Write a sequence for this structure.
């Protein structure tokens, strides 16, 4: 088993990089774009563009929630379109079956969304919390904590490789086809890298292994770790694993375009593996609102504190954001647009969710949509990138 010194050494190195930011931060408040240091005209254009994304016979997404802030000020909080627009997907016409107007559910700023892979960011924070406590070594081998995960142990996969998607594990594993929980566990334990460790390959399996590691290490399930270590201290009362009955609808999930036959989903996790695992998974399964995610973003931009609560020290937030990022993607122009290039960190989710944090200016952009309603399409992140570029122009305009 790795010693506590593994974690303490990582903490020492992070502190040398991290500076001396305050360990507390003002709570978020609503304010004008000018008070946030953002150009009003550019944000007005952004709001209009998001509304356009949700209109027409085949919108980019039926509904969306947009939140933009800088420092402790939320400058934009806007809802557009529908949380529930379709009753089903018609494969003959390749269109959604529209609900009667009276049965549709309008989007509001309080609508929860299936976050999909944004869940990975919370798993990464939970892991770095253990690194800060000295109970987890970032360069320790996974096999030292999970000796029964024989393939990972045999190939020397490390905690850092899980957090940076450099373990060599393949992107996915059909756990939803396993007969029971024992079969799913056995499949993960036997899964060997398909690429050389150290080479980037984005994989849900990294966060599933990290979930097992954290649960073994702490003796607590992942939902409890998230609640006790992140959401409850920050007052994020709308952020939890499903079911979440009031959430925006996602997909009429059926084969052949999906991996399971479940019908129109609302409040049940969209990701098939997370569903097979009971809804609690390291890679997907969380539901949240734009306002709760704004608190999460503000906390990290403020060095790990929000009001009197602290979930990480500033040096360990710095560790999260040090390229290539732990859980977070750094400077990915394909979804960040012109916000990329100065150390911006963020992630996307398959259901249509995304967030971007710009530590250089303490700015955050949250765009939550139900783009897979009524069925999944080839991913198109152009609107996300356009939103990032619009926020970048709002920063330059001041």
């Amino acid at each position: 088993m790795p010693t506590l010194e593994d974690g303490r050494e990582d903490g020492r190195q992070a502190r040398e990089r991290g500076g001396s930011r305050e360990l507390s931060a003002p709570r978020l408040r609503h304010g004008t774009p000018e008070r946030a240091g953002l150009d009003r005209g550019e944000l007005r254009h952004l709001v209009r563009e998001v509304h356009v994304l949700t209109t027409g016979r085949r919108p980019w997404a039926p509904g969306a929630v947009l939140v933009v802030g800088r420092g402790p000020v939320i400058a934009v909080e806007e809802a557009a379109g529908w949380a529930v627009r379709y009753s089903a997907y018609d494969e003959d016409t390749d269109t959604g079956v529209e609900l009667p107007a009276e049965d549709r559910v309008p989007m509001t700023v309080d609508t929860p969304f299936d976050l999909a892979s944004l869940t990975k960011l919370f798993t990464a924070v939970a892991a770095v919390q253990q690194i800060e406590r000295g109970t987890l070594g970032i360069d320790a081998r996974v096999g030292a904590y999970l000796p029964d995960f024989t393939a990972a142990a045999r190939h020397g996969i490390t905690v850092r490789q899980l957090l940076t998607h450099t373990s060599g594990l393949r992107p996915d594993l059909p756990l939803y086809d396993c007969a029971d929980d024992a079969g799913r566990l056995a499949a993960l334990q036997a899964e060997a890298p398909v690429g050389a460790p150290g080479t980037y390959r984005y994989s849900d399996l990294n966060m599933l292994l990290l979930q097992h590691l954290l649960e073994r290490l702490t003796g607590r399930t992942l939902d409890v770790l998230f609640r006790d270590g992140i959401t409850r201290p920050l007052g994020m009362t709308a952020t939890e694993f499903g079911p979440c009955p009031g959430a925006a609808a996602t997909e009429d999930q059926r084969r052949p375009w999906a991996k399971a036959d479940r019908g129109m989903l609302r409040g049940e996790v969209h990701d098939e593996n997370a569903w097979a695992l009971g809804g609690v998974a390291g890679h997907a399964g969380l539901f949240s609102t734009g306002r709760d995610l704004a608190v999460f973003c503000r906390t990290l931009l403020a060095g790990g504190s929000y009001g009197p609560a602290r979930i990480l020290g500033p040096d360990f937030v710095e560790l999260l954001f040090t390229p290539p990022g732990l859980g977070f993607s750094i400077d990915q122009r394909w979804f960040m647009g012109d916000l990329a290039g100065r150390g911006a960190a963020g992630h996307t989710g398959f259901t249509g969710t995304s967030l971007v944090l710009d530590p250089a200016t303490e700015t955050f952009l949250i765009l939550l949509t139900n783009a897979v309603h009524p069925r999944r399409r080839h991913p198109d992140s152009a609107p996300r990138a356009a939103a990032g570029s619009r926020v970048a122009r709002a920063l330059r305009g001041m």
In short: The CA atoms of residues 110 and 266 lie 15 Å apart.
